[in-house]
Every structure is written in structure tokens, then in C-alpha cells.
Amino acid sequence: MFTPVYFDHNATTPLDTRVLDGMLPYLTQHYGNASSRHEYGRAARRAIDEARQRVACAVGAHPTEVIFTSGGSEANNLFIKGAAAMLAPGTLAISAIEHPCVREPARQLARCGWQVREIAVDADCRIASADFSAALAEKPALVSVMLANNETGVVQDVTKLAAQAQSAHAWFHTDAVQAFGKLPLSFRVFNAAGVHAMTLSAHKIGGPKGAGALVVDKRVDLQALIAGGGHERGLRSGTENVAAIVGFGLAAELAVERIKGQAAGLLALRTELEDGLVARGAVIFASAVQRLPNTIYFSFDGFDGETLVAWLDRAGFAVAAGAACSSAHPEPSKVLLAMGVSPALARAAVRISLGAGNTQQQVRDFFRALDNTLLQLKGLVAAVAVPTH
User: Fold this and answer.
1) Which residues are catalytic?
2) Which of 31, 185, 288, 346 has a CA-to-CA distance to 335 between 20 and 30 Å?
């Protein structure tokens, strides 16, 4: 069976076999409802409690601050909508490069009397300090700035931004989905600086799809998105997905163990890829600033990104044109447009995001496939350009 080389770890990661082994008993013999009072239920509750402890420990939080959700999108919605529901309509400030699961709830709030203020970024995808100060001068009630961008990989100085936001007395949230497992995280440090909530997701760190968490300061009042039996401190009702939560806990523990040993190897592969891409004429976005060690976002001017992704897929390499969540709507990347990149160059963008299983040999094989693909695409462009009589 043909198996393409997987270079799309920011979209999702393979399920770690150790995580799967830990989940399997909760898909078979330990099938109790965690709200039941008998031993089957108590076993499920113990498993959830242990997973909550693992996730909390992985990100320097207290277990009571961890609210399990179905994933990062729900956690972001829980903060944005849940916090807004407890406040009078005011201003919500979000960065111009937020994931759609922050941007879209913000748009929904705008239809309910809230003012949405986008915070500009500079050409390197970093929050523009002058515009951030201007946004804070408008006294937003809520602020959301992602820790690491899913497309460019650029890391924001969230502790500095949150400390500045304290002057506005805003609740400050950060989407840490892409940073988790790639950078050390401490909610205690973030919280001390003024971060009140942080979003996590299991399937970005070798865990299962369908599990995530909002790590939230208990001083923040939230209205539940899903009302019912009062699960998860009353903030997320519904019978818990015990197996997925168990997997999330195990994946979080393993992710922390991997960070130090994996970062150097990923960075070496990223550097080799970037050097080769630049030598072939590619533009690397945000190459001069701190980024996740596994992420490369690049364009070959004159080549459509979606087309290049499709051809590389046929050649045996799974890469992405921007964010996976936006693949159904192939428009120029909003992130790149916010950085001031031209629409034409933004349409050409391709993302490679590396993971633990990638190797130097795969990088070499990728360049052979890329050279062949670019040669064929240039030939097609040249054929179209030749006038016919």
C-alpha cells in the first residue's frame, strides 16, 4: 500500500500507539458512565480525574482549572461566547491572525451588540505594538491573541501582551493549540502575567480527535455553551468521552517528555528544508522571527498553492495550502494578507509542518519530488503561453 510522507502535523498528528493502548480499555471493558454511582461509573470518574491531573501538570495548571471539551474549537467558543454572555456588550479585541474558531464567534457577537476590534500584525506576523496599545485604549472587555500561529508558526510574546492588557481590566485569552507539545507552557506563569484562559487540543500532540480543554482562571465567569447535567463544573454538560479524555491525558504527559529531545531535530530539518526552498527561489514567510521549530510557510511566486499541494500529494508528500480548516474555501490566506503579503503571493502559499516521524531522507526525497513538480508545472505554464495559429 502506498503511504505518502506526512508533512502536515499542524493539521493533526498520528495517534501515539501508547495513547491508543491506554484508551482501549475505556472503549471495551471500562464502559461506565462517569456520573453513575456504581463501580463502573466510579472507574470512569477516576480515569477522568487522572487525565485532568495529567493535562494540568503538563501545562502548569491546577486540575480544577481544566475544563474538558470536544476540542480546541469548542474551547475557544466557550471562552469567547461564555465570557461575553456574562458581560454587558462591549469591545472584543482579537488579533488579525486568529483561527476561524475565534474569528467566527467574534463575528457572532458583533451581531449581538459587541464591537469587534482586530489587532494588526506586522510583516513578520507579530502583534503590532502601536495598534495593540491603541486597541487597549478602547478598553476592551475581552482580548484573544493566539500563542503560535497555525500557518506561519510565529510565536507571540503573550506574557508581555497580557501584562499590558491588565491596564484595560480585560479578560485575556490565548489559543495555545499549536504551541502545546512544541513549546514549554506554564499556565501559572501566564496567569501571573495576566492570561486568564488558554485553549488546548489533544489531536495536535499525538492524542485522539474529539478532546480538548479550556484552562481557565476560576475568577472568570463563563456561561455554558451546552446546558444539561452540569458536567465539567457546570460549564460543559454531556456524558464525558472517557476514552478520548484518557487519551488526552496520556498524550499531554508524553508531549512534555518529548519537547526538549525533539525540538533540536525538528529545527535541523526545518533549516535544511528552508535552505533548499530558498535556493530554489521560494519566499519563506516570517523567517526572521521566533517560530515553532516544525513550521515552514513558503511561496513560489507564480505557482498556485492549491495546485502545488495537489501535485506534491500525487508525488507522495502530504503538505498543506494554509490551514486545514479553511481547505473547503480556497481563498488567499487571511494571515498572510494581514501581514501585507500580496494576494497573488498569498494564493501561492504552502505549509510544511514536521513531526517526530520525519527524517532527513524524507527531506531529500521531497526536494527530488519538488524539483520534478516545478519542472512539470513550468512546462504547463509555458505550453499555455505559446500562441496558437
Assistant:
1) 325
2) 185
